[in-house]
Amino acid sequence: MSDVSRPSPTGVPAEGRTGARTAVVIPAAGRGVRLGPGAPKALRALNGTPMLIHAVRAMAASRAVSLVVVVAPPDGAAEVKSLLDAHALPERTDFLVVPGGETRQESVKLGLDALPPDHDIVLVHDAARPLVPVDTVDAVIEAVRDGAPAVVPALPLADTVKEVEPATVSGEPEPVVATPRRARLRAVQTPQGFDRATLIRAHETVTGDVTDDASMVEQLGLTVVVVPGHEEAFKVTRPLDLVLAEAVLARRRLNDGF
Ligand SMILES: Nc1ccn([C@@H]2O[C@H](COP(=O)(O)OP(=O)(O)OP(=O)(O)O)[C@@H](O)[C@H]2O)c(=O)n1
Ligand SMILES: C[C@](O)(CO)[C@H](O)COP(=O)(O)O
């Protein structure tokens, strides 16, 4: 039996979660509006292979991951199933495909609803971060196994960040209201890792506008911890990110000698 069956009042089991099985939910149901017109973002090609397949392979590269749940565009579940069948994926990993929702939060919840009961650690990973290295995935899993209820990979910022009063008319100058101390800020990536029961509780309890799953756990009053992220775990959001992703893949091919 897994250690998470004996949570402490803070949600953190004293013994950690060594040996718990890990599932990954990959929200891939977004349109990719910021990337511009075309197929849903997760289905667009990087070096000839759909971004989603890169993301699935990145997760399945971790030997700790035994199940990947892909949350497909609402009308694209059959296409995503065919894609998974058509690409080589590790045999030790099981795959499920479910249709997604209107928002990222809804899509993640639909993925969680599809999880079988025997996985006590859940990662949530954007299909839009196709190049995350396996060491980052393993570091997140390790920190959840060690007892953290929620773990995020993150990097320090290169830019100074300003808080502004957002303009009501696009393009109007925006007054700055604060400059948070950059040394205390981190840019958060995925996969984000969770004790399964904690993540489900967060999705059942927290409503409103959130941009990641860890912030929902913060709203439960639980501690979220940060582990080092990786530059190659960047999110493909705008057209220039596609250029960077292709360049990273080209460098990997060179380093691998083919
Ligand atoms: N309704 C949604 C919206 C987003 N996502 C997923 O959440 C991840 C992060 O979202 P983002 O990068 O914002 O993707 P899009 O919503 O597709 O991008 P945009 O906001 O530019 O449309 C992506 O893998 C995306 O497919 C999802 O599963 N369901
Ligand atoms: C979850 C996330 O990738 C963490 O940085 C990010 O918040 C997703 O934002 P998006 O606007 O849905 O791409």
TrEMBL record:
One of its GO terms (molecular function) is 2-C-methyl-D-erythritol 4-phosphate cytidylyltransferase activity. Its EC number is 2.7.7.60. One of its GO terms (biological process) is isopentenyl diphosphate biosynthetic process, methylerythritol 4-phosphate pathway. The record marks R182, K235 as: Positions MEP for the nucleophilic attack. Keywords: Isoprene biosynthesis, Nucleotidyltransferase, Transferase. It is an enzyme of class 2 (transferase). InterPro entries: IspD (IPR001228), IspD/TarI (IPR034683), IspD/TarI_cytidylyltransf_bact (IPR050088), ISPD_synthase_CS (IPR018294), Nucleotide-diphossugar_trans (IPR029044). The record marks R34, K41 as: Transition state stabilizer. Pathway: Isoprenoid biosynthesis; isopentenyl diphosphate biosynthesis via DXP pathway; isopentenyl diphosphate from 1-deoxy-D-xylulose 5-phosphate: step 2/6. CDD domains: CDP-ME_synthetase (cd02516). It catalyses: 2-C-methyl-D-erythritol 4-phosphate + CTP + H(+) = 4-CDP-2-C-methyl-D-erythritol + diphosphate. Belongs to the IspD/TarI cytidylyltransferase family. IspD subfamily. Catalyzes the formation of 4-diphosphocytidyl-2-C-methyl-D-erythritol from CTP and 2-C-methyl-D-erythritol 4-phosphate (MEP). This is 2-C-methyl-D-erythritol 4-phosphate cytidylyltransferase. It comes from Streptomyces muensis.
